[in-house]
Amino acid sequence: MKERIQKVAMDLYWRYGVRSVTMDDIAREIGISKKTIYQHFQDKEAIVEEVIKHELEKLRADMEQIEREADNPIEQMLQASRCLQREMNNVNPVLLFDIKKYCHNGWELFQSHKHEHVIKSVRRNLEKGIQQGLYREDLNVDLMARLHIEQIELVFDPTVFPINQYNPVEVKTQVLHHFLRGLLTEKGFQLYNQYVDQSVIEAKNQ
């Protein structure tokens, strides 16, 4: 039952954000009493925390697999972006903003994941890219890793990119390519353009 509650809550949060989903909504969606939910979770934030832990573990595993299997740092960056884009297609853009504003413990989990895993992964990507001559040698690796992660987070901020004016997926794509192009050497550009051309062809054939 606990896993079922968690799954239904996640589906509702992903569709509507955290703030607008109540315990009553979760109970109604499952077809149980609110009392049954409280037997497994202390409160709404406890559910949010469990959902975030589960999703961050899944995302971490996906990113580690991409890092292992990518042929080069440029491919890794593009594959990671596609992975995030697939996730974003199923998520209400206000979700991250809601977690930041209304779920302190959940937001701390997200921040911990960002600093312990994501920034380190981006830093490794940048270092490999420099070693392989794909990224510029003059890059400040720590600064650029942090900048990239903050840009991704910014995409989800509805005060900066209102969802009635901007498509979050398009914003994320534009930000990623703007960031990546600024890293590249001449050699990197040639490889990058091959991936872009291939993506265009695949899109036309779909």
The biggest beta sheet, please? Answer: none
**Number of structural domains:** 1
Q: Can you tell me the CATH superfamily? A: Tetracycline Repressor, domain 2
Number of E strands: 0
Which CATH class? Mainly Alpha
Number of helices: 10
Radius of gyration: 19 Å
User: Level of helix content?
Assistant: over 70%
Examine the coordinates and then state which fold CATH places here, giving the name of the CATH topology.
Tetracycline Repressor, domain 2
| Mean pLDDT over the residues | 90
Q: How are helices and strands ordered from N to C?
A: HHHHHHHHHH
Class per helix and strand makeup:
mainly alpha
Distance separating the two termini: 40 Å
Descriptive notes:
With 206 residues, the chain is an all-alpha fold. It has one domain (52-205): Tetracycline Repressor, domain 2 (Orthogonal Bundle). 75% of the residues lie in helices and 0% in strands. It contains 10 helices and no strands. The protein has helices at 2-16, 23-30, 34-38, 44-69, 73-88, 95-102, 104-131, 141-155, 168-181, 186-205. Helix 5 (73-88) packs antiparallel against helix 9 and helix 8 (141-155) runs antiparallel to helix 9. The longest helix has 28 residues, at 104-131. The mean pLDDT is 90.
